[in-house]
Amino acid sequence: NGSYPDFTSGSVVAPYQYCNWTETGTTAVTIDTKNLPLRTNVTLGTSQATFTNASALVTLSSGSWPSSLTGERITADGGTTWYTVSAVNSSTQITLTANYTGATTTSNYSLTSPVTIWVAKDFKMENAATLDIRGNVTINVRGNAVIKGNTIVTITTGALTLQTVGDFTLKNQA
Questions:
Q1: Residue 127 has what pLDDT?
Q2: What pTM was estimated for this model as a whole?
């Protein structure tokens, strides 16, 4: 099916929809900006934002926040904690779902958008395959999901949600 190609030990490319996902051997897949042309871990321009300790408000120094920012995640430049945007209050102010816990700073920032991958049949990783998640990734599997044989899934930043209609098997030092 041309709309849903099979994925076999390669890079993730559009349309992020696969009949079967198979990754075997000592292959590695990284889901981040190198593979997905979404705003995943991308520093946006040279604009700066003010993050204030113990406040959920973030103010942009110049330019405008995109109106579609709600639900995306943001961090101050060099930050390791990601915050979810709950609302765009104005062209220069957003509200986070939680108060910012770092030291007050005016700096560049990074945004990440959730990535959803659809697997129409089965998802399989085996024999020392690796998957490195950088951002929020959801993998929806219509069939079965198997992760086995010294396979490693690493979440560098963000989160991985693996949803499967069929069986989920995790075994053999995975």
A1: 80
A2: 0.57
